[in-house]
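Issue 218. Parser rejects a valid record. Input:
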Amino acid sequence: KDGTINIWDLRSGGEILHTLKHGRWLRGVAFAPDGTLFSAGDLTLASSCFKLWNPKTGGLSKTITNSMPEILAACLSPDGKTIASCGARVSENGKTMWTDLTLWNAVTAKSGSTVTTNFFNLDRLSFCPDQDYLLGTTQSEAFLWHSRSGKLERTHNEGGRWFSAAAFSPD
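Output the parser choked on:
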């Protein structure tokens, strides 16, 4: 709620880093698999951005300004070079809401491809371990995109049951 980020050591329970100031509301916190970088998305409407941090030093590496009014989810690719984000956009009449899915270069902070979806509340993302696919879920549906082309490959609906999480297996 106050926009601070704290990192703890799982084994000892001790705090490694305390009070990295980011923004007011955070979403889409993710670590690169090698542990050298983590990202956090700021949900605050006035400052929708990602910040990339060095988790060892607490140093801010980059700030990526997002064009979306709010970030719903973000994840880092297994190689730590790409950030996938999704954000909500509301039409001018305020009646229609959709989600844009954007791939960002984590090294240069430049946006790559953006796919506009018709999916309301796409709020969870994860990369496949080989980075070829990106999984996104809403409360009731899962979507699988080819991560390089942005092509929607598959949709899965659980017949009214809710998704609370989704992930790829390592193989």
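Fixed in the parser; the record now loads. Residues 133 and 146 are 5 Å apart (CA to CA).
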